[in-house]
Hints:
The chain has helices at residues 31-37, 46-52, 97-108, 140-145, 154-173, 221-226, 231-247, 253-261, 265-268, 279-292, 303-310, 321-325, 340-346, 350-360, 379-396, 400-413, 419-431, 435-448, 453-465, 469-491, and strands at residues 42-43, 61-64, 71-77, 83-89, 115-116, 118-124, 127-132, 187-189, 195-198. By secondary structure, it is an alpha+beta fold. Strand 8 and strand 9 form a beta hairpin. The protein starts with 30 loop residues before the first helix and ends with a helix.
Amino acid sequence: MGCFSSKTAHLPSPDNPSKPESVNGDDSGVEEVEVNQVQVFKEYELNELRKATNGFSSDCIVSESGERAPNVVYRAKLENNQFVAVKRFSRQSWPDPQQFLAEAAGVGKLRHKRLVNLIGACAEGEERLLVAEYMPNDTLSKHLFHWDKQPLPWEMRVRVAYHIALALDHCNMEDRKIYHDLNAYRVLFDEDGEPCLSSFGLMKNSRDGKSYSTNLAYTPPEFLRTGRVIPESVIYSYGTVLLDLLSGKHIPPSHALDLIRGKNVLLLMDSSMEGQYANDDATKFVELASKCLQAEARDRPDSKFLLSAVSPLQKQKEVASHVLMGLTKTAPVVPTIFSPLGKACVRMDLTAVHDILLKTGYKDEEGAENELSFQEWTQQVQDMLNTKKFGDIAFRDKDFKSAIEYYSKLVVMMPAPSATIFARRALSYLMNDQAELALRDAMQAQVCIQEWPTAFYLQALALSKLGMETDAQDMLNDGAAFDSKKQNSWRN
């Protein structure tokens, strides 16, 4: 499915907390905490996912399958700045939208730290889409067959085998015993370098479950006979992944079994791992692969056996995965605490921003010298007040075009600028898809009140609309910093 699926959002948010770092190997006592942190499965609107993938742009594609199971995986960014993977099925795969959503919702109930969890789906018109978490560190296939800096070390390969077994065992316990087309592309690495099994494989490639997209040489024998996948087929596919881990290349199971029977195990092993493993451990690993690849389904082990066989082979549980893989792990970012306005801007929720600006009114300008403090009731002042009144009414009633018109007249009439007027006109411009003008007004509001969080948040909104995400993030952080400063000054 490619390497994009999601563990964290790049903008920290209380709705999407990052998961705690875990100690490799020992998975007890962590699962319940992490399960609670995965967002609830939801049904997405097509327009939301179309926007997130830039109109399903080819530039966002991270993987494509062949003709047997035509589907595409896109890297996508939701409006709350969360990165996800979106899998788009062929139009013929799931004719019944309710059947598709029901199947996806069933998979979406599964939650495990060794799964790339499914967080949503969409079925509108002829579109059938799945949404999963984001995984930033590529696939097992990339690290095994197309590595750039270093080959995957033996200990990490054992850990991958164990983590896949953990995920499959959890699926079995949750009565999800069929995993479609298990291969090295289905295993992905999260921000900590931890291997996780894609949830996409828990969904059929088509409504009848007959699709099987790998090379026939790697396909379970019973599938070739009946065209059906059974739970034991998953174990066979697990065996092919073990061969990948052992050899560092694609070896057809029949050829690998010939080598094993001829006791030519060394010819099977990846030469880049020389000196990294004990011969007894390698032999046990090979024997497990052989058991999984038995021609008769009834002769293959179950997931509990996989766990018991692989667990003793782990010898460096205390070493973090990103260290074993040579990945640079960035230090965790302290979550930024946003005010309600800041949170609304992070979500790009213009309606909520409008509600907050309405409730706030002009109180942030109290005490400042501006056009709202008058000593004389001249006709000019009366015209100014009426223009402001009509602008505020239009803003309240969400007649943003009229609000822009009245506030523009008011800006010309005012003897001194008003930050609130600029802020309201900025939001009105945003509501009319005029991000550049909105940015200009938000900057003018900052000139009026230099440390006003609202001005920074509105600039962030405009910058994000213009596709300037780095600058938008900086503005959000500045707004949050000034928010915090103001709160602290009130406490003192």
